[in-house]
């Protein structure tokens, strides 16, 4: 582990011991506000203290075992034990570095998930429906709440577009790398000669930002149109102008919502999606250097990027960012997305750690 990080850990360990003494002081206990603040800091540092003590203990064992390598009779046994300890040390170091790294607070938000049909006509629209079902099933496995914000039906029982709001603070951090182009290869039900067709759709995942982080929007920048809802939905369909279309004129960003009976509710939902889209664009512009690193590893997230192929005839799914192929397509389409998400998140986490360590070498400090 980097020497600067060890120094930082020693300082935090001293702070943890200091807090033990402070929190036992009766004057501090009576000051509820101060006691609560210090207790939170103590709780956070207790985790780091545990990792640091475990790391030091494993390193002492490592030194002790190395001294035994000269004994030829037990050399192989000692080497095996050293290999096990080395793996344990690396895992703890990863946890420590992740703990010390600056947190991306956008990871702690609900998210909007937009799926749109691309090339392929009716088959692309059916694939949108399949992906929507996959993400909903995955969310159900995670016990996340789901809301359909907007859906536009196609002529072939699929969706031209669907927008889902996923309500859980872990949702965005788990799904943020799903943005991009998704390609499907399969034989459509209407194909009489058994030929495999290729269709595409795009997925965009956006965090729902907090009120303080939302961009300010002037009412003069908005054009709001009302129209009658279409598609399945009951007697109110085609009888009232309850559907809403909001256009943000400066950026030409358009959002529609027609899933609620109430025009007011549709407007509220549409505004929340619009704000998320605008915020996503702002973050993208502000973090060009960070997005370059992310693009090199996982693609830019732009809709033109093909990130994944779903081959139904061979039962395989391939993520092109990792060159990872899994022959469990049916299982993944039924919502077991962790099979493909976990390797992506691990790769991104390792890249973050590498960037963090490079920063220590460059500037010589640990923030």
Q: What would you call the structural class?
A: alpha+beta
The second-level CATH architecture of the largest domain is 2-Layer Sandwich
Counted by DSSP, the helix tally is 10
Report low-confidence residues grouped into runs of 5 or more.
233-237, 293-303
Largest beta sheet: strand ordering? 2-3-1-5-4-9-10-11
What does this molecule look like?
This protein is an alpha+beta fold. It has two domains: 3-100, Methane Monooxygenase Hydroxylase, Chain G, domain 1 (Up-down Bundle); 105-350, Alpha-Beta Plaits, CATH 3.30.70.1660. The protein contains ten helices and eleven strands. The strands form two sheets. Strands 2-3-1-5-4-9-10-11 form an eight-stranded mixed sheet, sandwiched between helices. Strands 6-7-8 form a three-stranded antiparallel sheet, with helices on one face. Helix 1 crosses helix 3 (32-66) and helix 8 packs across helix 10 (338-363). The chain is flat. The model is unreliable at 233-237 and 293-303 (pLDDT under 50).
């Amino acid at each position: 582990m980097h020497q600067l990080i060890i120094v930082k850990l020693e300082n935090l360990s001293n702070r943890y011991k200091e807090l033990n003494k402070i929190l036992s002081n009766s004057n501090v206990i009576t000051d509820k506000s101060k006691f609560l603040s210090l207790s939170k800091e103590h709780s956070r540092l207790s985790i780091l203290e545990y990792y640091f003590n475990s790391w030091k203990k494993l390193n002492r064992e490592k030194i002790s075992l190395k001294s035994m390598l000269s004994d030829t009779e037990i050399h192989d046994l000692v080497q095996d034990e050293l290999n096990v300890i080395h793996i344990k040390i690396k895992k703890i170091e990863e946890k420590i570095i992740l703990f010390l790294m600056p947190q991306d607070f956008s990871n702690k938000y609900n998210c909007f998930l937009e799926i749109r049909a691309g090339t392929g006509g009716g088959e692309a629209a059916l694939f949108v429906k399949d992906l929507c079902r996959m993400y909903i099933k995955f969310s159900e496995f995670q016990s996340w709440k789901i809301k359909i914000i907007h859906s536009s039906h196609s002529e072939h029982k699929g969706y031209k577009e669907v927008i889902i709001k996923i309500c859980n603070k872990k949702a965005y951090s788990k799904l943020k790398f799903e943005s991009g182009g998704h390609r499907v290869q399969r034989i459509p039900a209407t194909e009489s000669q058994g030929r495999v067709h290729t269709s595409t759709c795009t997925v965009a995942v956006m965090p729902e930002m907090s009120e303080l982080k939302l961009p300010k929007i002037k009412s003069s920048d908005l054009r709001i149109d009302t129209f009658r809802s279409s598609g399945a939905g009951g007697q109110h369909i085609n009888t009232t102008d309850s559907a809403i279309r909001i256009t943000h004129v400066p950026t030409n960003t358009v959002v529609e919502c027609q899933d609620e009976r109430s025009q007011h509710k549709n407007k509220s939902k549409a505004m929340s999606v619009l704000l998320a889209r605008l915020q996503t664009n702002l973050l993208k512009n502000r973090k060009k250097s960070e997005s370059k690193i992310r693009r090199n590893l996982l693609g830019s997230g732009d809709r033109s990027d093909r990130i994944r192929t779903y081959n139904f005839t061979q039962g395989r799914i391939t993520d092109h960012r990792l060159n990872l192929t899994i022959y469990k397509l049916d299982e993944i389409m039924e919502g077991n997305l962790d099979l493909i998400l976990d390797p992506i998140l691990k790769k991104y986490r390792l890249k973050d750690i590498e960037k963090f360590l490079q920063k220590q070498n460059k500037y010589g400090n640990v923030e």
